[in-house]
Amino acid sequence: MNQAIAAALADEMHGDPDVIMFGEDIAAAEGPFKTSAGLLKSFGPLRVRDTPISEMGFLGAAVGAAATGLRPVIEIMFIEFIGVALDQLVTEAAKFHYLSRGTITVPLTVRGSVGAGLGFGCQHSQTLETWMYGNPGLKLAVASGPASAYGLLRSAIRDNNPVVMLEPRVLYARRAQMETGEDAVIPLGKAAVAREGADVTLVALGAMVPNALAAAEGAPWSAEVIDLQTLVPYDKEALLESVAKTKRLVTVEENPLTGGWGSEITSFVAGEMFGELEAPPIRVTCPDIHVPFGKELEQRYLPNPGYIAEQVGALLETGRRPPHWWEAYR
Amino acid sequence: MTFLEHRRKLQTSRPARYEAMCEIRAFEDRAQALFFEGLVHGTTHTSQGQEAVSVGMAVAARPTDWVTCTYRGHGHALALGMDPSVVMGEIMGKRIGSVGGVGGSMHLCEVSVGLLPTFAIVGAGIPVAAGAALTSQVRGTDDAAIALFGDGAANIGAFHEGLNLAAIWKLPVVFICENNHYGEYSRIDLTTPVEDIAVRAVSYDMPGHVVDGQDVDAVSEAVGAALARARAGEGPTLLEMKTYRYAGHSRADPGAYRPEGELERWKERDPIAIYRTRLIEEGELTPEEAGDIEDRAARRIVEAEETAAGSEDATVADMFRYIYAP
Fold first, then answer.
1. What is the pTM of this model?
2. Is B121 on the interface with A (CB under 8 A)?
3. CB-based contact, A88 to chain B, within 8 Å
4. Residue A70: other Cβ atoms inside 10 A
């Protein structure tokens, strides 16, 4: 997936001289996850820059550059680092169009690596989607593999709004054959049916898409897996269409239970289709705790394919919400 | 008068600078009164006493330079050439307001005069101005950016990160600290260990100068020199304008925490009075002409208020506009 990201960046930089890129260690070192391999060499130090370790400063500079005509892409090495710069994203970038009566646009892309699975401990393993999704003016997309990383990133860069593009760290090393070029661009706001099925709709994002697919594979029930791809704005039509067919909804989310985006999705679908559902919509999530460090604990923390399959199977069997695995520990 | 004519006049005519300062003073006095009288909603932050910084900056800046400033921004917006009825309209929540009446006093913006949306978060405009300067650098133009901020902002991370980034990338930007001696309700010596903010330039290997912020000629000269340096590719400059805020921090603040006599001492160095005396002494104005200018400025603000007050309120439909760009 890291190569797909570098390819998307290169393709957009070739196509538009206003696209520039900066972040910590992204130029000379080509990014800690090698997501900017070859870019400094191809596009030079005016357009591809290393920054000091100062997210507030360089995210703010990206807002200023975007508001005055460039199309910057910045990298937040670990999404947690955006905490010190959130003002610039949420309070400035997201509101400039509104606060200029539409005369200013902020075509800014903020890329950040997210998620658990690599043993980085609780300050470098969160997804933080919940920090981003309640903010009008921002868009939010999440990659679930090489093809979606490429396709969504190209759209994010072209979009005239600030777009946060989250990249699960655990997927950077995934390899797949994929197309690049114009046909591989994925529009923002559109979900993808990653797998068709009849009995239940699993809605997932990012690294939980491969997990949901693995859970569905070989299960005695037939699951449709929706890769939401964009969380803001999310694809309401695709959700309603799928659940109209399956009558059951399960969201699979790499976030603590409380306040996660699955609440929004289940609330929306239940509000529209309550009478048609054959089971309560349920959410498969992480517990309301910090991400643990140890390999086995980290895998237990995440909604792994076995646990997803267990939850879905129990829902189909009983028609009731199965208990969360961690309830014994509370 | 178009904003371009206004800016050209500021550059070529010292009486025009005098008039611009009078206009800001009249505007701010009226804005404050409207809030006190409860005729408008919300809050406001006025800049009486700081007019020379606004006008001196606008004399030196080009119309194609970008400016970021703060929630205390009426004076800068007017000096840059925004129509007073547009600023007043915004304060009153009118559709003719600078952002259509949905922003309020803290949120002005006018791309044609180079004013980015004004910042209601302390320090936030500093890195954004660096980014506007980055656009000039990447595109190879010689436009520059100016960040105006208060002394309170000199302690927030955005100041240090913005100056550092601008220095390391040699960005064409001028950082102007309006040191009015109070960060909100707190005197600078309670919050800041250095007396001169300008010394902080040393940390970022850029020139730092203390400037008399009550002297419009001194301001325009200092900003002009810093802009010339920026345009020549020599990087950023930090300028500290020593000035004083006659009003409290905001509408609700009478400024009772100020030591007795401090306000009066600063009023003896009133930027408008200083300039009036100078122009008369140097033969550029007669007292009668100065009086005419004052009357004209005051009248323009009365008219602006009438225009704004008689115009249409922002509507419910306006709240839904411009959330996302197409």
1. 0.97
2. yes
3. yes
4. 24
